[in-house]
Amino acid sequence: MREISSWRTLLSAALFALLVSACGGGGGGSGGASTTANSSGSNSGPSGPTVTNTSPAPQVLAANAVRVTVDSGVSNVPNMPFVSITLCVPGTSECQTIDHVLVDTGSWGVRVFASQLPASMKLPQQKDAAGNLVAECMQFFDGYTWGSVRLADLQIAGEKAASLPIQVIDPGYAALPADCASLGASRNTPATLQANGILGIGVFKHDCGAACVQQALAGTYYGCQGVACASIPLAEEFQVANPVPYFATDNNGSILSLPTVSGGAASVSGQLVFGIGTQSNNALGSAQVIGVSPSNGTFTTVQNGTTYSHSIMDSGSTGLFFQTTAMTACPSPNSAYYCPASTQQLSALIQGVNGTTSAVNFTVGNAASIAQTYNGDAALPLLAGPAFVTSTIFDWGLPFFYGRNVYAAVEQQATPGGTGPYVAY
């Protein structure tokens, strides 16, 4: 039986959202989202087609698709979508399959724990152009992961990314730099990360992009000699990478498809489909294309008269996260979530940098009541809260994904909806 108090760690470990630090994510370019005002309830500003939470059409599990499960996972944390991935020593058949890897559309890059790999499995370490052994401190909203950057052949479904730079999380690797340790909570074990790894398949190719090429950023990439590690700039080709653009085919994006959930469910099963418009099972169809900033992957949400200019679409977040005075947070120590007196039927307007607008209806429940009514359930679509976001961020977490096909188009890759980056649904 899961008590509401056990949810204290839910957000602190599971809110794996788009990096909003100086590191950023994408390639070159700049731009910002529109900030046209609009309110919830009846929309008085620009209107767009209303999107409701209807179930996606069922799809046959094809070679470019892998099963996704929302279940009790590593630590009984709800709203975490998991897949299994296989990592191999490059060019060999020495492989290890790792289950309960978090599917995260709000970050980019593969991260696994050294403890999930056999001691005998020696993945070669990444070196930069100067011959430095590369390590990384990966920043999330409330903490970090630390470890070396290694090369591995990644296999998932029928897709393969050869010699992909990944982060192998290992708190015992070298000496943890002080500027990394200062970033918040350590997420260097499966128990604290609440997963055995992260499959970051958002809209960018590399996890830091041009920002790390131009200068050494504290708390990001390091060159290590023995136990001593110092911040270094790093060319994109050496950075931890989103595997999707490195597949031979189906490499322009992905679709996360999950069924509708009413109230709660013990577990649900869906699909992660690779490619957009490359196979019969990944057509864009009538999905609305929401352009995102090519520099940080954000768009705009307007809700109840408030403009959230740094909005993200993030399957790695366990709820919808935004700051509002219209609902009260749950009492401490569960203030990560809202506890409105009654279930709230809300609406918002999503605005892409491409000018597309889309009205979205969503529902927020009382997290304390949800925990009592659906204790033990892993899929909880009514969770929302203020945790770890600023006044400009609206984090459309996993509850948004239930009952939808949500697309993430990778930067610089051509798709039927135009060249990425964009999200669509």
Automatic annotation (TrEMBL):
Signal peptide bounds: 1-22
Stated name of the protein: DUF3443 domain-containing protein
Region feature Disordered, mapped onto this chain: 30-56
Coiled coil regions, renumbered to chain: none
Biased composition (Low complexity): 33-49
Annotated InterPro entries: DUF3443 (IPR021847)
UniProt xrefs under Pfam families: DUF3443
Provenance organism: Paraburkholderia ginsengisoli
